[in-house]
Amino acid sequence: MEKKNFIWNLIGSVLNSFTSLFFMIIVTRINGIDDAGVFTFAFSVASLLQVVGSYQGRPFQVTNKIKSLTDYDFVYTRYVTCSIMALITVVYVFINNYNFSKSLLIILLVSFRMLEAIADSYYGIMQKNDRLYYVGISLTIKAMISVFLFWIVDLLSSSMIIAVSALIVSQLIIFLLYDLKVKNKMKYSKCKIDVSRIKKIIVLGFSIFIVTILSQYLLQAPKFPIDKYLSDDKQTIYGIISMPATMMLLCSQFIIHPFLMKMNSFIQDKKYSEFKKLVYKLCFVLLLLGLISEIALYFIGVPILNFVYGVNLSKYVYELLFIVFGAILFGMSTIISYAMIAMEKNKIQSMIFCFASIICYILSNKLVITYGLLGASISYLAVMLIILLLYYTSFNYYIKKDMV
User: What is the pTM (predicted TM-score) of this model?
Assistant: First the structure.
């Protein structure tokens, strides 16, 4: 069962992570570079707002040890947070006064992401029943059907709005015919809606939510001043050259996950020296892989991206390298972050991300206005360096404190 859970969850998670890459390729080739820029930005907004819908996320639900909170309390909470997600979307679109098609595209993509957030709460029930492979199968089905359907519909209609609408319908059908039916096979505690328990979950998950949404904002931050000050084609170019960075961030997740239990055991046994060595060893491995990737990207990165997307990116080699190196630094910060979670040092992480978000907002706006896409990539790299330095300093401080 454990092997089955691992394999299917890995397949589903990887395929689900790559859907945005395929959507981007499809839109760029079928709809053109300008429309692709609108899609890229709308998808980024939807991804950021999905954090609001998911709120504390499935790990918080699965690891819940408070007996008064039932499985369905988390499901009900997810519907509440998704309602807030929808409200924020409407307000955001209204405030920014986008044209009708762009506003509608954002709303539709947010709706698509909202369905994912709701389904994730039912995935939590499956995972608690040690049936994680059902989650992997669901994610695999959704990813494959989504990409194929989006491609076919967009090819036939040349309309991103119709293509995204088809995505929503397909996700809803799979949710109703597969996710809910599988959930009904599971053992779970159901209850009536209790506002006090929903409030409790929201309060308990707030610190996790802050870190999650700010980290997502930092990854997407340059896209907002690009949307405000530059043209749609520049948004497309930034979206394309930031795709390899997404791969590096996934790589950091694959590096850290197998060692989470070992980290916890080192902390429990108070083997802080071994714990520190393990964290730095994982950071070094990621840095080494990152540097190899940087060399490869310098020589063949742009030609490959040119071929895949059909867009000439020959002028953006350094922007590509800056963004990917920034992702490497953020991946190292993620490794240290998991280590600090094992040490139960969460409050300082919220402070780090709050400070970094303020710096990022100021820096990205100023540099994009002054230097365009080069400024966007420099601001991304600079902020990721600041985050890593703050994490490194905090980690060393707490390790020395605990070793005394």
Answer: 0.91
